[in-house]
Each structure stands twice: as C-alpha cells, then as structure tokens.
C-alpha cells in the first residue's frame, strides 16, 4: 500500500485548481526487442536518446535489471523511464526487507507496472513509455509488454515502436522454441540491423542483455557492421529529375 | 486471574510489566470452542468443533476461506473473527489485483499481527477477542501460523487453541515429528483425532466437526460431511482405547472388520 501512494503523489496536480496533462514526449528512446530462448530471455536496445529529430544522447542505457529475476527495457520518454525505475527500486527494496524467502518475480513486476501505467493513463497523465519486461523465476521464462495506455500482454517475442513493424515479422518467421544463446543473438542482430538501416532514430550502438536463472548480464555497447556500398548510393542524383 | 487496579485500560501497564486487558482477551480465546491445525510439507489441515448455542440453533461457522491458497480457523469471539477474515480477504485480493499472484502467507500474517497490535496500544480500542489459526501455501511451502490478540504470531507444525485444547496439544506433541512425511489422508485423520481428544467423552459426530484442507494442487476448501463421517466411523472401528495408547502409524485405508454396534 505504501508503494501506491508513491506512484500517486507524483501525479501532476497543481494546487490552484488546475490540472495538467502530458501532451508529448521530449527525449525519447526508440525500439526495444525481446525474445525467449532456451535458458531465459534476451533483450536488446540501442543506447540512443533523441531530442525530436536530433540524435542528442548517445549513451543512454535503456535496459536495466530489476531485482534478481527481471529485466526492464523501455522506449519512449527517458525521464519517465527513470521515474519508473525509481518506483521499482522502492518496490524491490520493500520486497527484500521482508527477508522471508519470497520474492517478486517477473510476472508480479509486469502486473505492477501495468497497474501503474493504466492508472496514470486514467488521469490523462501517462508515463510515455512502452515497456518490455522479461525474466526467469523457478525455471519459468516470462516475457511481457506494457504500453503507455496500460495495454499489456505476454508473448515469446515482443518489440516496441518501429520494432513492431520491422523486427516482429522476422521473429515470427524465424523464432522457435529453445534457441541457443548464439542463435538468439544472431537473430537479434538481424532485427537490430534492419532497424538501424530503416529507423531514423536508431544509432549504431547497441546493448544486448540476457537473463537466466543464474542472473543478469548486460553487454557493453557495441556496433554492428553495416554496408552502404550499393551502386545506387554512388551517384544518388543520377536519375533525378531537376526542377531548375 | 483476579480483578486488580491495573486492568481497566489496555494502555495501562501493571508493575509486573503485564497488560491485563490483552491477557483477558487471550482468555476469551481459551473459552472458545476448540480448533486444531496440522501441517505436512505439501498440505495443511484445519479442524474445528462447532458448538451450537442451543439444540434449536445452527452451528457456529469457525472456518473461513481467505483465498484459494489460505484459510483460517478461529476460536473466541466469532464476530471479531468474521471482521478479521474480511480484512484478510481484502489484503489477499488487493495483492492479487496488483501483482497477479497469491500473497505469501507470512506477509499476510504479519499484517494481521500488526493490526492486532494497534488495538493493544490505543486507549479508545480493545484487543480482538479471537485467536486465528492461519493455514496456507505459497512458493516457500506449506505454513501454519497462530495469531493471537496480543499481536504476536508464531509458526507451528501443529497447534490447538480454544477450550480443552491442551488434550489435543498433548496428542499432537507425541506425533508431530512425523507430520512432514504424512500423506494428505493421514493428516486429515490425525486432525479429526485431535479434535476427538478435546471432546473428552462427548460423542464425535460429523455434524459438530468441520475439517478443511489446502494443498499444492488443492485450493482451500471444507471437506464434505460424508467423507468426515466415513473417517470417523473407520476410526471408531479401530479402537475405543484411551488416547495415550494410540499406535504411532494408523493404517485404515478401508474397514476390513465389521462395524461394531456402539
């Protein structure tokens, strides 16, 4: 009960009788992709924070571990993501303070986030994020998504933003049960490459995170090899029709 | 205990460091009809004696389902017990709504204990006059707790509360070490046997006895009167000897002998 008050008292209510609402995001992250594999869940995102059309911040960590059993990746407003991390930090803290052998697993965290997102949406003051929550607890793999209006679901592979349009079709065709870690990374990089080519807010600096029963590993940022030597790029204005 | 000058308020200490009002509340629990609880590694059983106010009235309800994985048996002021059951149900359902998973038993029990403690430290309140045996299952296993009006709680392998519970406790003390290996049916049988001990001479029938069970693949529920009837009958075939000669292992899977006319 103590946690619900934290989430509620941060809602923007000004004392002169007016209320405010979030209208648009400012600094945003682009797609996050997640998929289940044999030992757990793998998640990837680039480390970019865009300020409108400017690729302003190049080292934003958009995937974070939550407690012992979960990973959270976010796209959308970065400051709202940081706020959510604050709520979850407190949630996990209280959970650990019980010190009684019970712990919040990915399913519980996912549901808690759903409640927070939905309640904010009902106040017309959403947290402008699409969240990917993955984890493993007691051998059970879990992967779910929550959007800024509280829509939530679980699946074997999820993606946010542009990832939904560019990465999911690849995953639908090529994902299968019990991928090895190497296969999963390869599949992930295939999706990330497409996003890098086609999503204007993507940058070539990615982090891949995995979570298994043993724990969380988040890779150091690295770049993918891209190819721009297509003949059509050599002389781009060759066939163009000019106006002057 | 006798009346003294320190027992008017719950917020008054006695020179010996006692809160008499809280102790009087525990007395109310001791006067209530008996309730017992037993736990194995996979199941927890609760059994109660249902006293009827008179021959004309129905029996008191003393066992409440709190959630699919938790149930309680009460002894003492049933009205207080009902109110606390409503509180427990509320806590469980709120947790399930936010986290989509069952509230761990130990956390529920602590909240209940904290609620009871509040009433021992406010001059305008009185302690709850009911003791609760909380039986439940969560990811850390099977649990049986006893919550008393003072706000303290303890975990037990087996326990009995209410009037003449000492007889049941003596019976359970002799056998509790093997409870963890008991099957579901053996646990139920011993629970009914423990209840029988508290009756001390009065006839045990299925109408005055309520038995409930919760297990890993079994939501908390009351056991059907007919099933209890069968178990009682098979028990009475076995022996009518006094309790301290009861054998350590009971195997009555079916009644091979013909029933005696009792």
From TrEMBL, chain B:
SMART domains: Proteasome_A_N. InterPro entries: Proteasome_alpha (IPR050115), Proteasome_alpha-type (IPR023332), Proteasome_alpha1 (IPR035144), Proteasome_asu_N (IPR000426), Proteasome_sua/b (IPR001353). Pfam families: Proteasome, Proteasome_A_N. Keywords: Cytoplasm, Nucleus, Proteasome. Its main location: cytoplasm. The keyword Signal does not apply. It is found in: Cytoplasm; Nucleus. It comes from the Eukaryota. Residues 239-262 are annotated as: Disordered. GO terms for biological process: ubiquitin-dependent protein catabolic process. GO terms for cellular component: cytoplasm; nucleus; proteasome core complex, alpha-subunit complex. Residues 6-28 form the Proteasome alpha-type subunits domain. The keyword Nucleus applies. CDD domains: proteasome_alpha_type_1. Belongs to the peptidase T1A family. The 20S proteasome core is composed of 28 subunits that are arranged in four stacked rings, resulting in a barrel-shaped structure. The two end rings are each formed by seven alpha subunits, and the two central rings are each formed by seven beta subunits. The proteasome is a multicatalytic proteinase complex which is characterized by its ability to cleave peptides with Arg, Phe, Tyr, Leu, and Glu adjacent to the leaving group at neutral or slightly basic pH. This is Proteasome subunit alpha type.
């Amino acid at each position: 009960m103590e946690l619900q008050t934290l989430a509620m008292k941060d809602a923007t209510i000004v004392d002169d009788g007016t209320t405010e609402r979030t209208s648009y995001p400012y600094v945003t992250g682009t797609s996050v992709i997640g998929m289940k594999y044999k030992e757990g869940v793998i998640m990837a995102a680039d480390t970019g924070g865009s300020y409108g059309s400017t690729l302003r911040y190049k080292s934003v960590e958009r995937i974070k571990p939550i407690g012992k059993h979960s990973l959270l990746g976010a796209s959308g407003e970065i400051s709202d993501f940081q706020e959510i991390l604050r709520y979850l930090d407190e949630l996990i803290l209280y959970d650990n303070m019980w010190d009684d052998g019970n712990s919040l697993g990915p399913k519980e965290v996912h549901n808690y986030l759903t409640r927070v997102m939905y309640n904010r949406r009902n106040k017309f003051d959403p947290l402008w994020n699409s969240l990917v929550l993955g984890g493993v607890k007691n051998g059970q793999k879990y992967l779910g998504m929550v959007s800024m209006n509280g829509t939530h679901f679980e699946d074997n592979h999820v993606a946010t933003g542009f990832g939904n349009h560019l990465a999911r079709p690849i995953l639908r065709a090529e994902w299968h049960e019990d991928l090895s870690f190497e296969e999963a990374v390869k599949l992930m990089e295939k999706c990330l490459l497409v996003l890098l080519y086609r999503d204007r807010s993507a940058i070539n600096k990615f982090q891949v995170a995995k979570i298994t029963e043993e724990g969380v590993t988040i890779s150091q940022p690295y770049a993918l090899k891209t190819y721009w030597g297509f003949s059509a790029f050599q002389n781009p204005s060759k066939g163009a029709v000019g106006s002057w | 205990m006798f009346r003294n000058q320190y027992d008017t308020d719950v917020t008054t200490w006695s020179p010996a460091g006692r809160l008499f009002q809280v102790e009087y509340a525990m007395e109310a629990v001791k006067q209530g009809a008996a309730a017992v609880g037993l736990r194995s590694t996979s199941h927890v059983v609760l059994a109660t004696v249902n006293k009827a106010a008179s021959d004309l009235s129905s029996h008191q309800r003393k066992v409440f389902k709190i959630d699919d994985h938790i149930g309680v048996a009460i002894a003492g002021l049933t009205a207080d017990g009902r109110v606390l059951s409503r509180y427990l149900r509320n806590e469980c359902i709120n947790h399930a709504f936010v986290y989509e998973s069952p509230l761990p038993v130990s956390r529920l029990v602590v909240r209940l204990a904290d609620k009871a403690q509040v009433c021992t430290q406010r001059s305008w309140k009185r302690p709850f006059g009911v003791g609760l045996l909380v039986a439940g299952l969560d990811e850390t296993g099977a649990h049986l707790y006893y919550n008393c009006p003072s706000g303290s709680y303890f975990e037990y392998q087996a326990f009995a509360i209410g009037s003449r519970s000492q007889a049941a406790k003596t019976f359970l003390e002799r056998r509790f070490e093997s409870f963890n290996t008991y099957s579901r049916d053996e646990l139920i049988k011993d629970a009914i046997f423990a209840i029988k001990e508290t009756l001390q001479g009065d006839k045990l029938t299925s109408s005055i006895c309520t038995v409930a069970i919760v297990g890993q693949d079994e939501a908390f529920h009351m056991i059907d009167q007919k099933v209890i009837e069968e178990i009682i009958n098979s028990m009475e075939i076995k022996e009518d000897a006094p309790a301290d000669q009861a054998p350590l292992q009971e195997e009555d899977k079916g009644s091979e002998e013909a029933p005696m006319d009792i």
